[in-house]
TrEMBL record:
InterPro entries, per database record: ConA-like_dom_sf (IPR013320), Exotox-A_bind (IPR015185)
UniProt source species: Pseudomonas aeruginosa
Recorded name of the encoding gene: extA
Chain ranges of the Exotoxin A binding domain: 1-70
One Pfam family matching this protein: Exotox-A_bind
Protein name from the UniProt record: Exotoxin A
Amino acid sequence: PVRYSYTRRGRGHWSLSWLVPIGNDKPSSIYSFIRELNTNNPTCHMSTIYTIEMGGELLGKLAPASSFFGRT
């Protein structure tokens, strides 16, 4: 999968990450999780991994309309 993430710094540091399956198979879901970070950026807590079911057609429509990508 390709991993994307968004990190918020400020009063409470946290990072939202999501994994998008790629390859010959059509994507059927996106996996996302949230990490709470301390000031030095190590993870101090990680949420359970959430699964968002969606088909390749929907993912194809969402990609061009996305407002940001943060690829890591």
